[in-house]
């Protein structure tokens, strides 16, 4: 599991990020000053492991080890325990359970999907494509396999192919801002101007009352980062809701700063997304991969 980021570390990260953005503010007309962002930035307590998940893991383990059940039933239990392990950040244990499940039941579609996700996080993209292809061969309408294969293709530097999967995923629910955002991020790699135009057109189907519409406004340049940050606590009723929203917000702020060339700010926002411990969210999963890729690029850029 990723270690919890304490308040002091979060403060250091934020200060570094805001200083970087402060320098950028003098050069970019659509940025607010760092002091305005500092006054409104929000930190939530990282999510603790849900005790219900711990109990569920224990009960599933007991049934797997002691109950007289069929191989198909055991495969399902391995899969369910793998999902629980994954939800609390125990990726290696989850991987072993998904592997056991597929050994017992080779047509367990969702296990292929999860293995593909894990291969993507480990930057083993060829294996990831193979797992998602297996899931889609068994269930051609498995929409989240399209999402996850699209993400693998995106991080595997194949944006044209990724956009095809994201378009298929977006088509099933065109008013979903998150589906639209992943499609935009991929199309931006191919043609930034056309991607922004398409984002504006498609965004008309997204309800203005959905918080994630603010991410779209940010990417379109219709609001500043400071204004975006001010929206983070709107309609929030619990620390859990706030933490989940910040996980998403920090990830997309990281991607936004990447497009502007502000690598330091981007890295800090990805770290803040990781610090929420919202392991189940796509944004948390790939914040770590973003950081790994940034480190790799930094090493490559220093080579003669």
Structural features, described:
The longest helix has 22 residues. The chain is mostly helical and about 300 residues long. It is globular. Among the domains are: about 60 residues, no CATH class; about 60 residues. Helix 5 packs antiparallel against helix 6. It has 16 helices and no strands. The chain is about 70% helix and about 0% strand.
Features:
304 residues; mainly alpha; 0% strand
Question: Can you summarize this structure?
Answer:
This protein is an all-alpha fold and 304 residues long. 72% of the residues lie in helices and 0% in strands. Among the domains are: 173-235, no CATH class; 237-299.
Quaternary assembly: single chain
Mean pLDDT: 87
* Residue windows where pLDDT falls under 50 for at least 5 positions: 1-36
β-strand number: 0
Radius of gyration: 20 Å
Helix and strand element order: HHHHHHHHHHHHHHHH
Structural shape: globular
